[in-house]
Specification:
single chain; mainly alpha; 434 Repressor (Amino-terminal Domain); 2 domains; 67% helix; globular
């Protein structure tokens, strides 16, 4: 299914919201998706992307879609996250960052 300009704009906004919710930083998200910063920023701006790159981003943010952007509800979520949901998301983000830090420390120790 081809994407219209509106589809791309809506998907870009949804990508940004989901990235902020799950990963916080762009870097954490684009590293997880195995794309570069430029590609990630294009996605958040709603610009056209190669299909394989879009699938990686969508699969990273919405694993249940297996990369199919048409399965995403791109309507803005006007309900603010509950405090409990936000705490859970922040704890998950902190765990990922600590794991990355531990991996980096291990890499540095083996090269020293």
């Amino acid at each position: 299914m081809d994407m219209s300009e509106q589809d791309r704009a809506d998907l870009g906004a949804a990508i940004k919201r989901q990235r902020e919710r799950l990963y916080g930083t762009k870097k954490a998200a684009y590293v997880a998706a195995e794309v570069n910063q430029h590609t990630w920023e294009k996605a958040e701006r709603g610009e056209a992307l190669r299909g394989d790159r879009l699938r990686r981003i969508v699969r990273t943010l919405w694993p249940e879609t297996e990369g199919d952007w048409t399965l995403i509800d791109v309507a803005p979520d006007h309900q603010p996250a509950s405090l409990e949901d936000r705490v859970v998301a922040l704890e998950e983000q902190l765990s990922r960052l600590l794991a990355e830090h531990d991996d980096d420390q291990g890499d540095q120790a083996t090269t020293a």
